Task: inverse folding
């Protein structure tokens, strides 16, 4: 779902990150407010004032989305659901869950927390707007407060549309889960509705563009496209977790991994291993024991004219819990670890010895076979 991300800060123990796509959307929103909405509603102000209003509104939007997602995360943590962090992305934000909710009640409470938080924030912004009017605060500040109050009402309302993975779709999934007793069935139905809603938005976008409202049409089209993809992705992720659950890592690992000796030179590493196998990380072993790891990032730090003089042992670093895993660990944990760290290969270790390598492509291959057989059944 995400591209390159920038870590911003930590709040209540949750790391807040920003996908670079959000920056693009923030700039477009600021431009549309400064050039379109604010000049239309509040005539006669200097152009620079409209831009300051737009920038303040985008900062308020940022705060509103973080507040919304932190509310989800706090409730999730209350019910023992691990949250990796919060990421702002192209059309809002998401609290990144490491696993699915344990019950319909947990799903419902976690989902409803976001829209309630947005309504509380809308009331707070409107309260500040009303107080500002009484105190005769400058019109630009009042305009921004009024806009943010409306925006949070819109955020709550849109999120409560019963289309998964929006909050309303999660509320619907909780109800279906309670009724049918199956998370998988509930997710399939809610995802189908979410996909249909996305398709309707795409159609609305095309219709709006044909009727002359090209900018609005593009927005509806992109949001619909995103929701349709997110609905399908959410169902696939659930299926992946369910089908890999209980499977040990050793079932997916390659038990004859490519390893390097600490005695070889960096040039030999590049010529005989990196260019041959195309991996960006290699385990370094000595007498069968895992002695460390060496990556292409470490190679780049060595000047090319010193590759013959420097050995792998000199640049190798200790392996971390992020790129190692035990052979008997659940495959779902390996998948979550890969998603969290961005590593597509993990070293499988037992008692300090390297016993294999587990790669994301091997896990996905078996998963695809299982899903094909499941659909056929």
Result:
């Amino acid at each position: 779902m995400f591209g390159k991300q920038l870590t911003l800060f930590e709040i209540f123990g949750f790391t807040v990150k920003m996908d670079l796509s959000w920056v693009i959307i923030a700039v477009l929103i600021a431009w549309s407010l400064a050039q379109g909405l604010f000049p239309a509603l509040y005539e006669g102000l200097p152009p620079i004032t409209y831009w300051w209003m737009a920038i303040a509104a985008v900062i308020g939007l940022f705060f509103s989305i973080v507040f919304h997602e932190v509310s989800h995360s706090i409730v999730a943590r209350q019910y023992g659901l691990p949250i990796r962090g919060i990421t702002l992305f192209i059309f809002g934000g998401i609290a990144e869950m490491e696993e699915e909710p344990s019950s319909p009640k947990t799903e419902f409470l976690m989902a409803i927390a976001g829209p309630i938080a947005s309504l509380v924030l809308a009331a707070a912004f409107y309260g500040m707007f009303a107080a500002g009017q009484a105190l005769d605060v400058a019109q630009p500040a009042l305009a921004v407060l009024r806009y943010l109050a409306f925006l949070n009402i819109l955020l709550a309302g849109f999120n409560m549309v019963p289309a998964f993975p929006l909050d309303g779709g999660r509320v619907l999934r909780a109800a279906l889960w309670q009724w049918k007793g199956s998370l998988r069935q509930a997710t399939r139905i809610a995802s189908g509705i979410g996909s249909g809603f996305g398709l309707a938005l795409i159609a609305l976008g095309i219709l709006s563009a044909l009727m002359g409202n090209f900018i609005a049409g593009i927005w509806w089209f992109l949001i619909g496209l995103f929701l349709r993809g997110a609905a399908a992705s959410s169902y696939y992720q659930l299926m992946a977790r369910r089908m890999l659950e209980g499977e040990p890592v050793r079932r997916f690992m390659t038990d004859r991994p490519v390893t390097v000796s600490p005695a070889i030179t960096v040039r030999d590493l590049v010529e005989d291993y990196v260019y041959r196998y195309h991996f960006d990380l290699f385990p370094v072993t000595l007498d069968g024991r895992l002695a460390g790891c060496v990556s292409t990032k470490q190679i780049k730090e060595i000047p090319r004219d010193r590759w013959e003089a420097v050995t792998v042992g000199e640049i190798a670093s200790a392996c971390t819990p992020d790129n190692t895993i035990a052979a008997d660990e659940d495959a779902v944990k390996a998948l979550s670890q890969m998603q969290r760290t961005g590593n597509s290969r993990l070293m499988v270790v037992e008692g300090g010895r390297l016993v294999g390598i587990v790669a994301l492509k091997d896990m996905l291959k078996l998963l695809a076979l299982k899903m094909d057989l499941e659909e056929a059944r």
Observations:
- The longest strand covers residues 5-11.
- The first helix runs from residue 20 to 41.
